[in-house]
Amino acid sequence: MIVNRRTIQRECVLSGLGLHSGAAVTLRAFPSSEGIQFQHGKDVYDAIPANVTDTSRCTVLGTIRTIEHIMSALAFLEITDVRIELSYPELPGMDGSAKPFVDALRSCGTEEIGSKEFNEIYARLFVQAENVKIAVGKGTGHWRYDFITDSRWPGEQTYESVDVLKSYETEIAPARTTVFSEEIEMVRAAGLGQGLDESSVLIIGASGYDNSARFVDEPARHKLLDLIGDLYLSGVPLNHLNVVGFRSGHRRNIEMAKMLFETCVPA
Length: 267
What we know:
267 residues, Ribosomal Protein S5, domain 2, five-stranded mixed β-sheet, 6 helices, alpha+beta, 31% strand
């Protein structure tokens, strides 16, 4: 399959607090023709699955943490080439969702810079481990995520989009990162989530949300947002895939991204 390559037209700037560290960080995105790259100081990393170094609580590319939300925004905007420079090696948390990244990148305009060829997917790809599963096949942008907590509230949530590019901006991008109420003390003690507050994270209580939710199924939507961002490390456009994620997190997402990259990106 042939896909159009796209970059931004001019520099894009965002500032905020690192999602986990709480450190002040300025993000500058620049037009590029070298694929998607992240840079902090002299360290430059191509946004490909092989460069992922950690998947606990977020996706880490080299030394740069929490890339999944902006990768999700780039996937929706179909941006294939951009250089993202950071003053600190972590993406700003913003409001805990991908929407601020979508708004900022779009405001800088986009332009096509050629095309790129990918191999077709001829058989469905599966990642399965214990009770986690991801299935990916050639498709038209039909994405689904099943958020399962067993006996703990909410039990089961499913979010599904038959046209992910059409629904992403209003139904997926605004969904915020989540935390279970019983994990807050542990998360804080581990020095995580320092750049978030009750307006930028959804707290899942024992029998309901402990703060205001943007959607009744916001956790399922945010998990799909993360899945989109992680799988876009393969470079394969959203609307060329049909995807189902079941209880998956960053670790299994990246396993699937590697499979997609190896299957679809010509050597």
